[in-house]
Design goal:
With 148 residues, the chain is of the alpha/beta class. Helices cover 39% and strands 18% of the residues. The protein is built from five helices and seven strands, in the order H-E-H-E-E-E-H-E-H-E-E-H. The strands form two sheets. Strands 2-1-3-5-7 form a five-stranded parallel β-sheet, with helices on both faces. A two-stranded antiparallel ribbon has the order 4-6. The protein starts with a helix and ends with a helix.
């Protein structure tokens, strides 16, 4: 009986996350260009809040983790800790070229690599910096991929 209840609760949570995903943004070492574009998606011009997307202050409340920049040596333990705090089922979106390939920081001794070398990434949003429309599209694609 307990397994049936848990399964039902997981299905309800998964369906509700499609309609109102809560986002947590983590800069792991970017130049802040992607961060500005993420903030721009929250402004009235793009207004992702009408879609139910809310930027939350704690990874424990988030459904989607937006990662910008390559993972620096200093951010590595924090990045892993934040990833582990996001509840299951978690969605990770890598935003920007730096988060996808590490460019232009490739070869630096302080870079551990792109986020997908450390945690599984569901969707990549390309651009330097990516347009707010691309970020919204990436979030929607990740949710469809994860929750059907």
């Amino acid at each position: 009986m307990n397994n049936i209840l848990r399964s039902t609760n997981m299905k309800i949570a998964a369906r509700s996350r499609i309609k109102s995903p809560w986002l947590f943004h983590l800069n792991t070492g970017s130049c802040a260009g992607c961060d500005i574009e993420i903030v721009a998606t929250l402004t009235p011009r793009y207004d992702v809040e009408r879609l139910g997307c809310i930027l939350v202050g704690s990874p424990r409340h988030a459904d989607v983790l937006l990662v910008t920049g390559p993972v620096t040596r200093q951010m590595l333990p924090r990045f892993i800790r934040v990833y582990e705090q996001v509840p299951e089922p978690k969605v990770v979106v890598a935003v920007g070229v730096c988060a996808i390939s590490g460019s232009p920081f490739v070869g630096s001794q302080m870079i551990e690599g792109p986020p997908d070398k450390i945690v599984p990434v569901d969707v990549y949003v390309a651009g330097c910096p990516p347009r707010p429309e691309a970020i919204v599209n990436g979030i929607v694609t990740a949710l469809k991929k994860k929750f059907g």
